[in-house]
Amino acid sequence: MEPERQSPGKPTPGAGFHSYSWRALPTDSNWRARCDIIDALPHHTKIELEALYESEKISLGVVRPTEVLDLKVEPVEREWKSQWQGVLNQFNLFSGPPKHLEKLPYKFSYVFRCADSGDKVHNAMIEDWELGVLYRKEVERLGDEDAAVANVQKKFFDEICHPSRDTRFFMGTVFPYNTWVVIGVFWPPKSAQGSLFP
Prior knowledge:
Layout: E1 2-5, E2 20-23, H1 28-38, E3 43-44, H2 46-56, E4 60-63, E5 67-75, H3 82-88, E6 106-113, E7 122-125, H4 129-142, H5 145-160, E8 168-173, E9 180-186
Parallel strand pairs: 3-4
Antiparallel strand pairs: 1-2, 4-8, 5-6, 6-7, 8-9
Helix pairs in contact: 4-5
């Protein structure tokens, strides 16, 4: 998505602030509009990102895996830790009582290799909110957690990480550690790369 400035006549939140509306970039022409933006960003391997964190404290990056081997699913505690629950329960002066935030009962992780991985296999936990939304929708639709997990895996392997896709991971660190997690996925068709024609 890209920001689109509102017309000058529309009110802004306050002095010094600008109001923005957002429009989704199209996926026609092999995602060309989106690829023009993402392809211009530096791309690294996971090993390179770890080194950049140590040398420059870089904490966000784009990784293009050469191979996605698995979408690992592990059961976790179903309730928030007490210290987190206390934060989630805090009353907000402006929005009122907090809404219940359901915790996912599973941890999802990508298992993948990069160009410089050699025999090493990387594991990166997925913190992408879209995965959580997909899982919850599938549970609601199917009424079965195991079936929902299977459908999430199917979507990721049949679509997002399919060999026909030029999959990239948007990755970030878990402060204050040099631990990288996947916070988003970009998966244009491979034919979008290097195309000179619309």
